[in-house]
What we know:
By secondary structure, the protein is an all-alpha fold. It has 21 helices and no strands.
Amino acid sequence: MMDTIEKVVEQTENAVEDETRAPLIDQDKNGKENNFMVYLSTFVAVCGSFAFGSCAGYSSPTQSAIREDLNLSIAEYSLFGSILTFGAMIGAIASGPMADLFGRKGALRISTAFCTAGWLAIYFAQGPLPLDIGRLATGFGMGVFSYVVPVFIAEIAPKNLRGALTAANQLMICAGVSVAFIIGTVLTWRVLALTGLIPCAVLLVGLFFVPESPRWLAKIGKQKEFEAALRKLRGPDADVSAEADEIQDYIETLQRLPKAKIFDLFQRRYLRSVTIGVGLMVCQQFGGINGICFYTSSIFESAGFPADIGTIIYAILQVIITGLNALFVDKAGRKPLLLVSGAGLVIGCLLAALSFYFKTYEIAVDAAPALAVTGILLYIASFSAGMGAVPWIIMSEIFPINIKGAAGSLATLVNWFGAWAVSFTFNFLLTWSSYGTFLLYAAINFAGIVFIIVMVPETKGRTLEQIQAAINT
């Protein structure tokens, strides 16, 4: 079995070397590959990412209006806001099995149905219970989207486009959050809930026109559908025989292994990929991103900087840098972007810590606001440059098809647990020590840099089968 895997790796590595020596323009001429359907499929899938962002950004601009209209206490509204994360954790647990059982498109349809039902429940809500049920349902949809969208894109994209297209997931999440922030200032909270149905509708309609993941079809033994989907994605005139054979050979090798359950993920053969996938999610979330994002306004106010101006700059910066990340991830590589991002996160946290240290002990008081704003904006820009999107890209690349459901669910669950833990503890930490909080996050982000250097491989320019065989042998 090991000999078979090594043979597959050797064959695919030789193929990559040959392709690398050939100019890309020649490949296009000879293979007549047409990526229109890949782009269309990606656009349809990232409507789920935009829906994700709409859910995440909904509670911030609507807080006062919902509390006034429905006469909610602070505790009742806090439950409404936080129950989203619990729904996402449930969705994360269900996402892998759903994607394996119903296919990537089937899982996207189910999560869209939950989001649609959730938004309608919020729109018609006359009290806290339907409001919370709707929020829980949209959270479930978010949890499924956060796993299935990057996996679907990674499985349909050619290797030279995979990083950029998968990074579009994070870009559309940021766009969804920013749009909700902006239009939430001019629309009522009920109408804003209805706007959340727009990306859901586009996604549901679009799924009728795009193919299923060829790798999933090959895994469940649908040979004709697998070949038809691959040909549809690469164009009617493309020669897909080599790619089809590589996918089929690798899946046949993996299917000789027993189907992995959650405890099987910690077997020696899978341990490295699981450690990388889960470890990157820990680095992403426990470095403080959700605490800083959720409380950006209060951080700026505490530092003495106008909160509205700071929040607008933050939203614009996040979208621009995330867009640039999508353009460069296939050129610069995953690992360099992660390391540059991690360094920026450490420096940003240290600047914010220095600002609050100055304010606490009344040292250079005039410099404190500028340091805080510079630190927070550097932190957000650095996160958007790598740590925001790249862990999801690598997670979608490293897990073999036979463990992808269980391993992806575990990594996504860890991510959402981290999001909840950081957002829940952030205010408590600030009460304990404002500068100490940012020093703690700086230390965690530095540990993340060490983890990336030691554990994370470069996956740029390699097929999924090459990456997975190299890591899991």
